[in-house]
Amino acid sequence: MPDVQSSNLTSANSAASSDPEVTEFIAKFLDRLKSESLKNQLQLVEELASSGEAGLAVLMRFLLDRQEHPGIIEGKVYQTLVAAESTTAQTFLQTHFPQGIVPLRSDRGVDYAPLQALLAQQDFQAADRLTLEKMCELAGPQAVQRKWLYFTEVENFPVVDLQTINSLWLVHSEGKFGFSVQRELWLAAGKNWERLWYQIGWKTGNNWTRYPQEFTWNLSAPRGHLPLSNQLRGVRVIAALLSHPAWE
Questions:
Q1: Which residues form the GUN4 N-terminal ARM-like repeat domain (predicted)?
Q2: What is the residue-wise DSSP string for 170-186?
Q3: What angle do CA 121, 122, 128 make, to 5 degrees?
Q4: What are all long-range contacts of 114-123, with beta carbons under 8 Å and residues at least 24 apart?
Q5: What confidence score (pLDDT) does residue 21 get?
Q6: Which one is predicted more confidently, 232 or 141?
Q7: What is the fold of 113-247?
C-alpha cells in the first residue's frame, strides 16, 4: 500500500481510478476531511491539492457528498478545485457546480453568480466592488444610477438576498469575511463603532484606511475587514446592515 500519511501526500500522484490502492487512499482521507477540526481540515485540503489526481479525487468526492450544506471547508475545497490545473477537476465543476457551491437565492431576481465567481477566485477587491453594485441593484434603479446606498434602502433589503451575499463572503473566505462576522465583532465591542473600526482595520490612529491601496485584499486581513459596506459614508448604512432581520 502507498504511504498516505499527511506529511508525504505528494507520494500519491497516481490518477484516481479503480486501483484498490487509490480507492483506499480516497476513503481514508474522506474520513479525515469529515471528522477532524476545521483547522486540520483546511490544512489537509492544501496537502491533498498538492498530491496530484488522487488528492483531487478526494476533494471532488467530498464536495459531492457535502453539496447540500456548503460551509467553510466546502468553500475551501471548491476554491482549491477552481484553482487546480486539472482537466478532470474543471470538468467536474462545470458538470456539478456550474454556478458555484453556494445556492444563489434572490427575492428580487438579482444574479449573484458573477460575485461567487470572483470570490471563488479570491479576487476580493473586485468582489467588494461587485458586492456594492449588487446591493445597489437590489435597492433599485435610482441606487444603481447613483452607485451608493441610503440606509433606508438597506432596511428594506430581502432577508434572503442579504443571507446569500453574506454566505458567499463567509464560505469563500474561510469564515473570515462577511456581514455576519462584522455583526459578531460589533456586538462583542458593545456596538462601539470606533472599537470596531480599529478591530477590522478600517481605521488606524485618527486616520481612516485609504481606499483602495491601504485595504488588505487577501486572507491576511483582519477578521471582518471585508466587505467594505460603503463605510466611507458614515455609520448609517453599515448600522442598517448589521441590524437587519437577516441575522436574527
A1: 26-98
A2: HHTTTT--SHHHHHHHH
A3: 115
A4: 115/165, 115/168, 116/168, 116/172, 119/168, 119/169, 119/172, 119/173, 120/78, 120/79, 120/82, 120/172, 121/79, 121/82, 121/83, 122/79, 122/172, 122/218, 122/219
A5: 75
A6: 141
A7: Arc Repressor Mutant, subunit A (1.10.10)
Tell me the three cell numbers of residue 44: 489537509
pLDDT of 3 above 80: no
User: What burial letters (b/e) apply to 173-183, b meaning 16+ CB within 10 Å?
Assistant: bebbbbbbbbb
Helix ranges restricted to H, 19-174: 20-35, 38-49, 53-65, 72-83, 87-96, 113-120, 124-139, 141-146, 151-155, 159-171
Q: Where are the domains of the chain?
A: 6-96, 113-247
Q: How far apart are CA 159 and CA 156, in angstroms?
A: 9
Strand partners, 129: none
The set of cell numbers assigned to 181 is 462576522
User: Can you tell me which residue has the cell 500519511?
Assistant: 5
SS3 state of residue 102: coil
Smallest CA-to-CA distance from 153 within 248, 162, 103, 180 is with 162
Helix (H) or strand (E) holding 239: helix 236-242
Q: Note the pTM of the prediction, 2 decimals.
A: 0.89
Q: Which residues is 203 bridged to in the sheet?
A: 208
- Residue 12 dihedral angles phi and psi, to the nearest 5°: -100, 70
Residue 11 predicted with pLDDT over 50: no
Q: What angle do CA 63, 36, 78 make, to 5 degrees?
A: 25
The DSSP symbol for 232 reads G
Rounded distance, CA 146 to CA 55, Å?
48
The C-alpha atoms of residue 19 and residue 72 are separated, in whole angstroms, by: 31
